Amino acid sequence: MVIAITGGIGSGKTTIANLLRERNYPVYDTDAAGRKLQDEDAQVREKIISLLGEKAYTGHTLDRSFVAAQVFADSGLLLALNAIVHPAVAADFNRWKEGFGSQQLLFMECAVLFEAGFEFLVDKIMVVTAPEELRIERVMRRDGLSREQVLLRMAHQVPEKEKISKADFVINTDGFSLPEEQLQNLLNILDKNF
Fold it and tell me: Distance (Å, rounded) from C-alpha 95 to C-alpha 140?
């Protein structure tokens, strides 16, 4: 069984993914895989250069700040970039999944689960949620972005309420609820039913 961990930017997905790793559950990180593929996969690199030009790379590394400035200002470019990266990540995920037995509980950490169409690669969906203001503050602090930059990125994501409506499980990281307890309760349920 594969369970997605998704939620808006700054919701606490990585915190939950790390708690699962500490408990020895395999977690596939779509963001890390996407970054690696953009840097190391020759076909992906070639397509990105065709889309955004040579400035998209510094040496063999994607210039993420240049690319972000281009695609978050032009939704057409963002769609075109995603059409390059998302299929490569989906193929990489399927290869990763093959390395595990069919009776294993696997997790996929994915911010853009619905935007990328990756919900069809998983069996269940866990949405990690937090109040919008808290999420904005977390991302500004974590990434050194301005409030406007965070809001621009949020505008390109499926709204939180819509994600929650599609969730099988919800974990709240609002600072009052204990995510560790919520996660353990969920794992207890999964272990009984899996």
Answer: 34
Cβ-Cβ contacts under 8 Å for 155 (sequence gap 6 or more): none
Cα–Cα distance between 146 and 151 in angstroms, integer? 9
pLDDT digits (tens, 9 = 90+) for 12-43: 899 999 999 999 999 999 999 999 999 999 99
The residue with tokens 């993914």 is 17
pTM attached to this predicted model: 0.87
Structural domains in the chain plus CATH codes: 1-26+103-194 (3.40.50.300), 30-99 (3.40.50.300)
* Strands of the 124-129 sheet, one edge to the other: 27-29, 106-109, 2-6, 124-129, 169-172
- CA 26 – CA 20 distance, rounded (Å): 8
Spatial separation of the C-alpha atoms in residues 194 and 180, rounded to whole Å: 20
C-alpha to C-alpha distance for 113 and 157, rounded to whole angstroms: 10
What is the distance between the alpha carbons of residues 53 and 57, in angstroms, rounded to a whole number? 8
